[in-house]
Amino acid sequence: MMTKSSDPDAGLPAPARTSGEGSRTLRAGFIPLVDASVLIAAAEFGFAEREGLTLDLVKDVSWANVRDRLAFRQFDIAHMLSPMPVASMLGLGSNPSPTITPFSLGRGGNAITLSTRLFDRMRNATGLSEAASALENAKTLSKVLVEMKASGEPMPTFGVTYPFSSHNYEFRYWLAAGGIDPDRDVKLVVVPPPLTSDALAAGAIDGFCVGAPWNMVASERGVGRIVAAKQDIWPSAPEKVIGMRPEWADSHPETVSRLIVALDAAARWCDRPENHDALAEALADARYIAAPIHIIRHVLAGEFSLDAKGNRRIIDNYFMFHSGFANYPRTSQALWIYSQMIRWGQAELGLNPARAAASAYRPDLYRTALGEGSAPSDADVRIEGADENDRFMDGHVFEPSKLPDYIAGFAVKSALPFIPHPDET
Question: What segment(s) does the record annotate as region Disordered (predicted)?
C-alpha cells in the first residue's frame, strides 16, 4: 500500500496493517546528540504519526542508563551506539540483555578534540601545520607522548562515551594509527557526552571523542582543538542505531515495520539541506539537545570551527542520515565492531561469538519493512574499506572471512588476555 502525504517521499512503501496491533505509543530513550536527529524528526514532523505511531521521547544522561531501561522494559526502543547491540549479543558488560537493531540512524557526527594546551604543545614541538591531517596529528601526538614519558610527566587522560562505543574504537584506531598504545601510553575514561566540554575546560581530561555538537562547543569556548573527524578514520563506520529487544520485535512485527517506514521517511527529510533550519531549531530545544542553534546548524552543514582562532574546515556529508544506504544495518559492519572488541581485549575470537555478533544487525527486518529494492545490491557481508572513497585511515581492509588475519595484522593491539569488561557508566 502507499501512504498519503504532501511530503515528497509520500510514495514510500508502508506495511500492510493486518495483525491488529493498531495505533501504538513507543517509549524511546535517547541521548542529546545530533545523531538522534532521525528519531527526533520522526516524532516532531509527523513521520511517526503518519504510520499510526506516537514516539514518546525520553532524554537520558548515559548510555548505560539507556541500555538498562531498554532491558528492564522502561523503553520499547532506544537511540543506541552501534556497538551496543553487538556487545549485548556477546553477553558483554555489567547488564547484558539481548538487543538487536533493524535500522541505523546514519553515519558521521563524531570527532576527536584535544585540549588547546596539548595541541599547542604538539604544534610547538614539531611545527605541526594548522592544516595537518588526522594521521599527522596522531603521529605528532605520539612524539609528544614520548617526551612526556621521558620527563616523568603523567600520561594524558582522554574521554570516551562508553566502553562499547564507536567513540572508543575510533579513538583507539586513531591513536594506534599514530603508533600510540591506548592501554599503555594514555588513560581512557568514560565521560557522558554533554559533560565532555566542561571536563576539558576544567582540566579533568586532555581530549575526547564524542558526537556533535559537543566538539564544536569545546572549540568555540576556546578549550579544545578538533584534530580528526569520523570520516577521517572510516567514512562508512556505523554510528547510532535503533535498538530493541528481539522478543519485543518478534511479538510486534507490524509495529517494527511501521517504525522503520517512519524512520526511513524522516531520514530522507533530514538529509535535505532545505530542512536543516527547521531541524536545527527542533534539536536546539531544551527537550532535546539544548545547545546553541547556530552550532547545530553549522555541524549539520559540516562547517567546523576547529578552534577559537578562526581555523575552519568543511566536511562534505559530515552527517549522512539516509543517502548511501546509511540506514542499512549491514552484517559486515557488526563483524568489524566485533573485530575491534577482540583487538582491544573485550571479546574472544571464535565462530560462535562471531555468529552472535552478526545476529545483532537485522537487515532482514529492514527489507521486510521497505522492500528488497530498498537494500543495497551487494552482500550483507562484504569487504569493508576496499572502495577508494571508503578507506580506513591506516590502509587496512576488513575481510570478514579472514577475521583472525585482520586482527593479527595490526602492529598495535591489546596484549592482555580477554577478561569480560564491566562497564560501570
Answer: 1-23
Q: What are the residue ranges of helices labelled H in 252-306?
A: 253-271, 276-284, 293-300
Do residues 103 and 241 share a domain? yes
CA dist 15 and 309 (Å) reads: 52
What pLDDT is stored for residue 256 in this prediction? Answer: 98
CA distance 100 to 85: 5
Q: CA nearest 243: which of 91, 360, 371, 364?
A: 360
- In Å, what is the CA distance from 17 to each residue of 24, 155, 247, 250, 382? 12, 58, 20, 16, 34
Beta pairing partners, 98 = none
Whole-prediction pTM: 0.92
What is the domain range of residue 157?
110-236
Residues 96 and 73 in one domain: yes
Angle (nearest 5°) at CA 348 between 344 and 352: 140
CATH number of 122's domain: 3.40.190.10
Say whether both 164 and 46 belong to one domain: no
ω into 420 cis (within 30 of 0): no
- Total structural domains in the chain? 2
Q: What is the pLDDT of residues 161-220, one digit of tens each?
A: 999 999 999 999 999 999 999 999 999 999 998 999 999 999 999 999 999 999 999 999
Q: Are residues 202 and 124 in the same domain?
A: yes
Tens digits of per-residue pLDDT, 54-93?
999 999 989 999 999 999 999 999 999 999 999 999 999 8
Asked if the structure places residue 389 within a domain, the reply is no
